[in-house]
Amino acid sequence: MKLYYSPGACSMATHIVAREAGHTFDLEKVDIPNKTTAGGGDYWKINPKGYVPALMLDNGEVLTEVGVICQYLADQKPASGLVPEFGTIARYRQMEALNFAATEIHKQIGALFNPKMTPEMKEVQIGTIERRFNALEKMLDGKEYIMGDQFSAADAYLFTVLNWTTMHQIDVSKWPNIKAYMARIGGRPKVQETMKAEGLLK
User: Fold this and answer.
1) DSSP secondary structure code for residue 152 in this structure
2) The pTM is what?
3) Which of 6, 95, 151, 160 is the most buried (most CB within 10 A)?
C-alpha cells in the first residue's frame, strides 16, 4: 500500500499509526498547492478531495480521511493494540477521541493556516482553541494517553494537530497536562522515526 502525505500535515497521524502498527508501505509526498505527487502524478485523480492523507490499498482502492485511515491501519494489525475491538465501549471511546481530535482540535487550529484571516478573526479563533484546550487539559488529567495508560491511534492524531501550536506560536505551557502529553508522544521512537522520514527532524 501507499500513503500520500505532506510533511507535518494531518497525514502525519496516519503515518505514525502505520509505523506503530508495523506496516510495510510506500510513501509519496504531495505538493498540496499544485495537487501533484512527487512522482509527477495528478493528485486530483488519486483523491478528488485534493487534500492528504490518502491511502492506496494493494487492490487499487483509495481510503481518505485521517480518522478512517488510522482505524483501518490499526485494525489490520490488532496485536498492535492501537484500537479496541469493534462493539466494545472502549472502541466507541476511541471513536469519540478521534472525532474530538478531528472536529475540535484539527479544524480549530487548522483554521489559523488561512492567509486571509484578519487579526480580529484570529483573536476569536484563538479563544475557541483555548476553550477546547481547557477541555482537553481535563480529559488528560491523570492519564498518560487520551484513552488511559495505552497509546492509541487517537493519540497519533491528537499529537499531530497539537504540534501545529508551534507554527502558530500558541504557548501550551498554561496547560501542563497537554504540554507533558505532547512531550511524551513526541519522544516515542516510531513518532521520531515518522518525523525524520517527513524531514521534520534531523
Assistant:
1) -
2) 0.97
3) 160
Total structural domains within the chain: 2
In total, the chain counts a number of residues equal to 202
In a shared domain, residues 108 and 167: yes
- Give 160-196 pLDDT, tens digit per residue: 999 999 999 999 999 999 999 999 999 999 999 999 9
Domain with residue 41: its CATH number is 3.40.30.10
Residues 46 and 122 in one domain: no
Task: Tell me the mean pLDDT per 10 residues along the chain, length 202.
Answer: 98 98 98 96 97 98 98 98 96 98 98 96 97 98 97 98 97 98 98 98 88
For residue 37, what pLDDT is reported? 98
Q: SS in 3 state form for 48-110?
A: CCCCCCEEECCCCCEEECHHHHHHHHHHCCHHHCCCCCCCCHHHHHHHHHHHHHHHHHHHHHH
